[in-house]
């Protein structure tokens, strides 16, 4: 019996990664670093989840020692810029997300999110796209550095399930990426995937369904049909 839906944030609730990329690049420019991540650079770097981890990978690729670099401060500045971009109204929910959350609430399903991004970014997105604070959208918010091992590790989903007080067979995850799917599956969750602009080329082995957009699910009845034994 399904009792909760657990949503990834970036790429799943909304196409956020171009705004993340802009925020990273604006931050690099303001810090006088002379770095610029093109779309192609970002597509490659995105396989490393987490902004701090992505900056560290970039430093590694440049042959620079991340230990002597203010990665956390740079990332905090990026988070500030990203929040301001979102507050500027440059983001909307992916098709089907708003209706799915409304219906889930109506039928008594509990809602959580499990994301690599940090809590302030979840807050900014919820205020901009749902018009309310994150805690009024999601009962449980599992985000960012609350776990040390980020997706594709299952830790963030374990955390969300523990906060919900549910087992993995009692929830379904929603994701946009192969890393997210791996995290959900490793936590024992069924997972519906709808790839986004940066993940269209990825493979999704073990997904409950791979959809062009979440409206294709057919709501909670469509989800129940997918979960029903053949
Ligand atoms: C999202 C991420 C995040 C964002 C940036 O992965 O990898 O790192 O790109 O967020 P997922 P921060 O959707 O699988 O959770 O800079 O706040 O880390
Ligand atoms: Mg994602």
Overview of this protein structure:
This protein is an alpha/beta fold and 230 residues long. It has 2 domains: 4-15 and 93-227, HAD superfamily/HAD-like (Rossmann fold, 3-Layer(aba) Sandwich); 17-87, Putative phosphatase, domain 2 (DNA polymerase, domain 1), CATH 1.10.150. The chain is 45% helix and 11% strand. It contains 10 helices and 6 strands; from the N terminus they run βαααααβααβαβαββα. A 6-stranded parallel sheet has the order 3-2-1-4-5-6. α9 links the parallel β4 (171-175) and β5. α3 packs across α4 (71-87) and α4 (71-87) packs parallel to α6 (119-129). The longest helix has 17 residues, at 71-87. The chain is globular, with a radius of gyration of 17 Å.
| SSE pattern | EHHHHHEHHEHEHEEH
The CATH first-level class of the largest domain comes to Alpha Beta
Distance between the termini: 16 Å
Reported for the largest beta sheet, the result is: 6 strands, parallel
Spans of at least 5 consecutive residues whose pLDDT stays below 50 are none
Average pLDDT level = 97
CATH topology of the largest domain: Rossmann fold
Strand order of the largest sheet: 3-2-1-4-5-6
Strand content: 5-15%
SS class: alpha/beta
- Please tell me how large the radius of gyration is: 17 Å
Ligand list: xylulose-1,5-bisphosphate, magnesium ion
* CATH homology superfamily of the largest domain: HAD superfamily/HAD-like
Enumerate how many helices there are, as a single number. 10
- Helical content class: 40-55%
* Count of discrete structural domains: 2
């Amino acid at each position: 019996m399904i009792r909760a839906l657990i949503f990834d944030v970036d790429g799943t609730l909304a196409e956020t990664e171009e705004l993340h990329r802009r925020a990273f690049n604006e931050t690099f420019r303001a810090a006088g670093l002379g770095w610029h991540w093109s779309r192609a650079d970002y597509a490659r770097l995105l396989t490393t989840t987490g902004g701090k981890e992505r900056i560290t990978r970039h430093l590694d690729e440049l042959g620079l020692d991340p230990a002597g670099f203010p990665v956390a401060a740079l990332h905090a500045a990026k988070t500030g810029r990203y929040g301001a971009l979102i507050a500027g109204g440059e983001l909307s929910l992916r098709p089907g997300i708003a209706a799915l959350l409304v219906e889930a609430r109506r039928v008594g399903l509990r809602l959580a999110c499990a994301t690599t991004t940090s809590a302030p970014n979840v807050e900014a997105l919820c205020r901009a796209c749902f018009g309310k604070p994150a805690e009024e959208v999601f009962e449980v918010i599992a985000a960012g550095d609350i776990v040390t091992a980020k997706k594709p590790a299952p830790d963030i989903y374990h955390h969300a399930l523990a906060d919900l007080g549910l087992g993995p067979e009692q929830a379904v995850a929603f994701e946009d990426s192969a890393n997210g799917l791996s995290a959900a599956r490793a936590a024992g969750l069924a997972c519906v995937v709808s790839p986004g602009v940066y993940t269209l080329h990825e493979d999704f082995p073990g997904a409950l369904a791979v959809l062009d957009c979440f409206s294709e699910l057919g709501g909670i009845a469509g989800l129940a049909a997918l979960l029903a034994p053949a």
